[in-house]
Prior knowledge:
Blueprint: H1 2-40, H2 44-74
Amino acid sequence: MVVLQIAGGILLALMLWGLLKLTFKALLWVLGLTVLVGVLFPGLLILLGGLVFVFVSLLATFGLLVLISAAAQLTPAFSLPCKPAKRAATRLQGPRPTSAAEL
């Protein structure tokens, strides 16, 4: 069991390292293209800045929603209270049976 946990941890670390490398490479490419566009078309940097702001705000909103949904599943404080429905007593129903013999 311990060997499986160690192997799982190693695989998870390798996957996270690959994701970090990919993210860093993508960040360098985006920065390089931004500098290139800024040199060739200086007016487009305003448009790119606005698009980056919208993209970052969308990511932040998505992250908050993920955190809220994770917290709602972990703690019962965020869940709605579930109360059993009460049986409405009417004149037509009469008294409720209390034993199996009365059924």
